[in-house]
Records
---
Amino acid sequence: VYRVEAVLPDSADGSVDAMSDSWSLAVESAADALKAGRIVAAVGEPGSGRTTALAQAQRLAHPRRRFLTVRAPVPRDVDAWLALWTPELRHREEGIVVSNVDELPDPAAQQLHDLLINAHATMSGSYAFSAESFEDIPESLAVLVDTVVHVPPLRDRSADIHLLAASFARRARGRDIAFTPNAMRLLTEHEWPGNVAELHDVVKDAATRTDVIDVQHLPPAMLAHSAHLPRIQAFEREEMVRVLMRPGATIGNATTELGMSRATIYRKLAQYGIQLPRS
């Protein structure tokens, strides 16, 4: 399965001015390079927003240009994938973002190299790739890259979380959705190993179940930082989070349901790294 789509002016979440300095620097650096006719590679962790950064850069560099984002396919679909969208390279004033080029098999990368060489020499389109690292880009495409831009992971730009969460919730429900201070604190303090993609999934799930997102609407694991627990301990941790995150829950009434003393509950909260919301 692969996707080829025309990017609309409002497709990229957040404006350059509203986002963090590190994000804006990446977008503006890519935009300057695209405006100068260079081929750009955006690199960073999966889910960090590499394709979105390039989409914003394309829109910033060429606000009136039509452009496509193209995600690399599984190997068996390469021929159909190339046949579907590469005719667009014949159009002047076309922008192309090819995401996850590090997933392309070498023969497909070589074919794309040849097509881009011809298009770049004869047309005035703008082209960009995304990958996890520059070293992972197939050599035949890496030699075409003029500018490399690093997209920082979400954990390094916590200032973006509030804006992105609000945008994802609005997209899920078609209107603004509120977040309690405790829920937003948890979102901001979370490490987000899955980056923006993980934040999107968490917020979308919560927004479809409530009009005000609170702690109990977020995944229980977000309240506990202990990883790789044995199955029984992981179950105990999740049960503690479930009981203690209910609206109006107290340590006192949790002792009965959990069958633990206050001292045991406090000890296990520390053991499992569970952070109770501030009252």
Note: The beta strands are 4-6, 40-43, 66-71, 94-99, 126-131, 147-150, 178-179, 212-213.
---
Amino acid sequence: MEAYSERYEAALAMAARTHRDQTRKASDVPYIVHLAHVSVILIRHGFGEDLAVAGLLHDTVEDQDLPLAEVEAAFGPAVAAMVSALTERKRENGVERSWETRKREVLHQLERASADAVAVKAADTLHTVRSLLAGLAEHGPAHWSRFSRGPDQSLWFYESVAEIVRERLAAHPLADELDRAVDALEEAIAAGEDR
């Protein structure tokens, strides 16, 4: 991947516009920060431009209802397929679906997704877990009150993602880094329970 790409610039602009009114959960940090981190993690691990673009756009359909057809028209079927594989269906017939149902479905989708989509989910989860660790370091166990689920359910989900990533990406350094982050989260949760 070249250092500058008009295609990557267009994806970054689409992500910034689409998520312009969204912030990270439990903070005032613009959501684009998460998307940029996901993309940078993929680039730093040597993945190509399609994955870097998918990293920028992976939540546009899920969180902002951007039509998948727009992603495909702008960035091609490979990027659209990754975004589709990582899109969580939060509502059904106008009713919010339960967190547990959605997360089980995400794991099932991930087991069947392409290795490229699994890499994007690994980068997404890595940044989410690292952000959660930073919040716990700053606020302690009270940080969990800002989320819909507590430490046990969250850890279950992140461990499950890491297990699928390990199975699908084998010895890739991204899988190693995700494993270390999830282990650190498990340790932080245990330390918080000891307080």
Note: The mean pLDDT is 93.
---
Amino acid sequence: MLAAYDREYRSVLGWEASPSMAPFYCPQCRDPVIFRHGQVLVWHFAHYPESKCRHGENESSWHMYSKRELCRALQREPNVSECAVEYQIGRLRTDVFA
């Protein structure tokens, strides 16, 4: 998943996060998640292995990269005032919302 909540339950995007902002929480189940920030994959969050929540599961690195780049492109547009990744609308979760 590209978005998680910080300790004050504010939404934070993986590419804007840092380890010093931990702990992070899943936006769906509110359980703690791991911040993965290596040099190969897009920076993202993942559940601990014992978690039952499936939010963000099975997304390829290309899918996460595409969501990130689409959101970044929309944020540069002058007519876009807000852009969110993995935005919840009722029971649905969009990849990108602007």
Note: The beta strands are 3-5, 11-13, 24-25, 32-36, 44-47, 84-89, 92-97.
